[in-house]
Write a structure and sequence with these properties.
The complex is a heterodimer of chains A (330) and B (298).
Chain A lengths: L5 H11 L9 H38 L27 H32 L5 H13 L2 H27 L15 H25 L3 H9 L4 H30 L2 H6 L18 H8 L5 H35 L1
Helix pairs in contact in A: 2-11, 3-6, 3-8, 4-6, 5-6, 6-8, 7-8, 8-11, 10-11
Chain B lengths: L16 H36 L5 H5 L15 H32 L4 H14 L3 H15 L6 H26 L2 H9 L4 H29 L3 H6 L18 H10 L5 H29 L6
Classes of the chains: A mainly alpha (330), B mainly alpha (298).
Chain lengths: 330, 298
Amino acid sequence: MTSDSPAVAATAEHRAAGFRMSTGRFGDRLFAGVARGSGITILAIMAAIAAFLLWKAIPAIVHDHANFLTYGAKSDQTWAPDAQPAKFGIAQLAFGTVVSSFLALIIATPVAIGIALFITYYSPRRLASGLGYIVDLLAAVPSIIYGLWGVNFLSQKMEGVSKGVGTVLGWTGVFGGGNYGGRSLFTASIVLAIMILPIISAISREVFRQVPTAHIEAAQALGATRWETIRIAVLPFGRSGVIAASMLGLGRAMGETIAVALILSAVPGINWHILQNGGGTFAANIALSFQEAGVNGRNALIASGLVLFIITMLVNMGARWVVARRKEFT
Amino acid sequence: MSTISARRGSSLEQISARRRAKDWAVRILVYIAFLLAVIPLVSVLWMVISRGLKDLNGSFLSHSMNAVTANDPGGGVYHAIIGTLEQCLLASLMAVPLGLMTAVYLVEYARGGKLSRVISFFVDVMTGVPSIVAGLFVLTFWLLGLHFDFSGFAGSMALAVLMVPTVVRTTEEMLKLVPNELREAAAALGVPRWRTIMFVVIPTALTGIISGVMLGIARIMGETAPLLLTIFITNAINNDPFHGAQGSLPTFIWDQSTTSGKYAVDRAWAGALVLIIIIMLLNLVARAVAWLRKPATR
C-alpha cells in the first residue's frame, strides 16, 4: 500500500553497494542478534499458535461421536462436547460465520467506497483529514460497546425493519419464513458491516489518493464530469486495492466475537431464514460456551477456534496476495 | 457528442442533461454513504453518554462489585479499571520491545533478504489473527499446557499478541522516514551501528513511535474476547496481575450486560462510558503527539 520514499530507495542502493551490517564489535553483533531474534520470535509465535491449537484440537475431534464437519446442521443437534457420548460439530457455526461476514461485506463495501470517494474527491480539501478522522473513530469504538448498542438499541429497531424487509422480500426465501426478530444473523451482519467499514474505507482512501494526477487530468481534459473521471481513472486504478481491503474486512468480520455473541440468540441448527432469531458463529460460540465448558468442552472450542484461525489466515493471505500482485503491475 | 458540429459557434460544449444528472446522482450517493457512517457513530456515542451518565459518579469509580448482585444498586468499576490498566501496561511491556526490535531488524538490518520478507509477511498475517484465537492460544499454552491459573498476566499475553503487529508496522513506517544522511553522518564519525540506531535513528522517530504505540494500546484496551478466556471474571479487587482472576473494563461490561437484573445493564453502560473515555483520550493524545512533532521533516 505504501510507496517507497526516496530515502528508502537511497538506503536500498547503499545496501546493494555493500553497506556493512555490523562493524563486528561485540555491541553491534549483540544488537543485531537481538533485532533478528525479535523477528524470529514473531515467526515462532505464529507457529506456536497453530501448534498449540492443534495439540488440543486433535483429542477433541478423536472423542467426538458425531461428524465434526457436518454435525450441528439440524435443529436437534446441539453443541454438547461434555455430554456422554460427546457430540458436536461446526456445521451451524461455519454457516453463521460465512453468511454473516459475507452479508456484512456486501453491505459495507459500497458504502466504504462511497466514503473513500467522498473524502478524497468530493469533500472540501481543508475538511478532508478531519472527516477521515471521524470515520476512523468508528474503528476506535471497542466491539463490546457495539455489542451493547446492538442488543439494547439496534436489535429493537431491527424488529420493525426485519418485518418490513420480510414482507417485501419474503418471496426470496432467505428473507422469508415469518416470525421475524431483532436478534438475527441479519442484525449481526449490520453491526459487523459498521465495524469493518473504517478498515475498508481507510485502505480504499489510501489507494484512491495514489491515483496518478496525470490520469485524472487526462480524463478532465477529455471533458469528463467528476463521476466520469472517477469511473475511467480512479476506480480501475483502485480496483485491486479495494478488493484487498474488503478481503481484510472479511477476515475481521469472521473473527469478530463479542458484538456477535451479544446480539445473536442461541438457537441450534442451520436456519436459512436470516431474519429470524438464532444462528451462531465460531467466535461467538467460543465466548458464550467457554465458562460452562469442561475439559472436553474446552478442547472442542479450541478445535472450532483452529478452524476459524485457518479460515481467517487463508482470507488474509489471499488479500496480501492481491496486494502483492498489484505491486507488480504498477 | 453528435451535436458538436451543430454548435460550432459556441466556445465550449454544454454537458448533456443526462450526464449532468448522473454526475449529481453519484454526488448525492457519495454524500449519503458518508452520512451512513456518521449515523451509527453518533448513535453509539449518544447511547453510551446518555445512558452511561446515569450511574457514573465518584462512588462508581471508587468501588468494586464485591458482594453486589445484579439486583442491587451501587457497585462500581474500580477493580476493572485497575485490571485494565495493569493488563495493558504488561502487554505493552512485552509487545513494544519485541515490535520495536523487529521493526529495527526489518528497516536497519534486513536488506530485503528472504528472512525479512517472511517476517514481514507474517506480521501482516498476524494483524489478521482474530482476538479470540489469541485468547485460545494463551489458554492452551499458558493455562492448559503449563498449568498456570487464570491471571491478569495471562490476559496481557493475549493482548500482546494482538498489539505486536501494530507496533511493528507503525515503527517501521517511522524508521523509514528518518533521513539517511543522519545514518551516514553517524557512520562517518565512526559511531557503531547499534549506537547510531539507539541514539540517532530511534530518537528522531520517537514521537511517531510513541503515537503508534498509544494507538496500539487504545486498540487492545477494548478487547474482550481474549480476556474472557484468560483472566476469567471476578467482582473483587485484585491488585496482583500474576495470581488469580482479575477484572477488566471489557469483561465487566460483558458480565453486566449478560446477567439479567434491574441494575446490571445501567452499570454496563456506565462501564462502557468509562472505557470509551479512556480510549478516546488515548487516541486524542496519540494524534496530538503525532501532530505536534512530525518526525524527521526538516
